[in-house]
Specification:
about 350 residues, Rossmann fold, two-stranded antiparallel sheet, 15 strands, about 35% helix, about 20% strand, globular
């Protein structure tokens, strides 16, 4: 029985990863940790139903009910406690997904992303004999403005924001500790995630939330958008979870892997697919408003290294966005209309 230790277990990627492990690997056990108390029916963030914030409900199939999974609310900085947990659990694989958020204060990003990574790896170093792989969740943002597209793992790293800078610093720290302590660290640079349950700082959730509210006549049929020329590499969170499992199984220690779709997609395309999925084409007024000039106009990953391990995406972007729109029209709508004192259905 393979044992996984996952930090950030109640985050967006963490939930999908743990669910995928339990569904795909018979007998696997998972111990997850995170800063928040155990939440069995929702993510730790809110989404919007019209102008109303709603605890983001878990999509169908993501609620974890398994004796093979345990969640413990503990901060990654509790090095001694985590060392005890690791010694008891003896994991084969560690996946480090605990992270600050992009718009957190710089001091918080440094504490969580850099110091938190060091604290975890120091705790892991005490049981390194049982460890086969340590997957460090990083970001495609470490590359900054690329010299050419697609971006491969050998491209120069010049992050444009403090979040990405702290993620790159965490990578550097992990390499030093891997060399000093003999740890099998792999860096996973995740590009732009999308999928049901993601918070609305990300464009797919934001457009889908507004489209669902328009369909319910809760807001006027008007979408205000900033520049739609910017491009990014979007990957379904379910594919990202599958990619992380691929790295757990076949990734090469001391390596870096991009996790993306390998496709460059404009924000205009995201809007078009969303309106199509919601059957709102030609029924919505799109207003362009002034916004800041994109720090990174174009971004897309080369995923040949990941493909060499046998990985392929299973979720095309139009399927992902349809699922996000449906998530708002079903799960979020149901949660928003439920009386506040009514418990979620089991």
């Amino acid at each position: 029985m393979k044992r996984y230790f996952v930090t950030g277990a109640q985050g967006f990627v963490g939930r999908y990863l743990i669910s995928s492990i339990l569904q795909s690997q018979k007998g696997a056990g998972v111990l997850g940790i995170g800063r928040s108390s155990c939440q069995n029916h929702s993510f730790t963030h809110c989404v919007q139903w019209a102008c109303k914030p709603v605890p983001a409900p878990l999509p169908p199939g993501l609620t974890i009910k398994s004796r093979r999974y345990e969640y413990v609310p503990v901060n990654v900085h509790r090095r001694d406690l985590i060392a005890e947990m690791l010694a008891d659990f003896q994991p084969n694989v560690v996946v480090h997904l605990a992270s600050g958020l992009r718009d957190d204060p710089t001091s918080s990003l440094l504490t969580t992303n850099v110091e938190g990574t060091i604290d975890l790896l120091e705790a892991v170093s005490g049981i390194k004999k049982s460890i086969e792989k340590i997957i460090l969740g990083s970001t495609g943002g470490v590359y900054g403005v690329p010299e050419k597209l697609p971006i491969d793992e050998q491209a120069a790293c010049n992050p444009n924001d403090f979040y990405s800078a702290t993620k790159l610093a965490a990578e550097h720290a992990s390499r030093i500790m891997a060399r000093q302590c003999g740890l099998p660290v792999i860096c996973a640079r995740l590009f732009n995630l999308a999928g049901p349950g993601q918070d609305e700082r990300h464009i797919c959730g934001r457009f889908s939330s507004q489209a669902a509210a328009i369909l319910e006549d809760l807001i006027p049929p008007v979408l205000e958008v900033e520049s739609l020329d910017t491009t990014r590499d979007f990957i379904d969170v379910r594919d990202a979870a599958s990619a992380l499992i691929t790295l757990c199984e076949r990734g090469v220690p001391s390596s870096v892997y991009n996790i993306g779709s390998g496709n460059e997609t404009s924000m205009q395309t995201i809007l078009d697919i969303t309106l199509q999925a919601a059957d709102l084409r030609n029924r919505v007024t799109v207003r362009h408003k002034a916004g800041r000039i994109a720090d990174i106009p174009r971004h897309a990953a080369s995923i040949e290294a990941l493909r060499s391990l046998g990985f392929e995406c299973r979720y095309p972007l139009d399927k992902t966005i349809r699922d996000v729109v449906d998530y708002y029209r079903t799960c979020v709508r149901r949660r928003a209309l439920r009386p506040m004192n009514m418990a979620p259905a089991p």
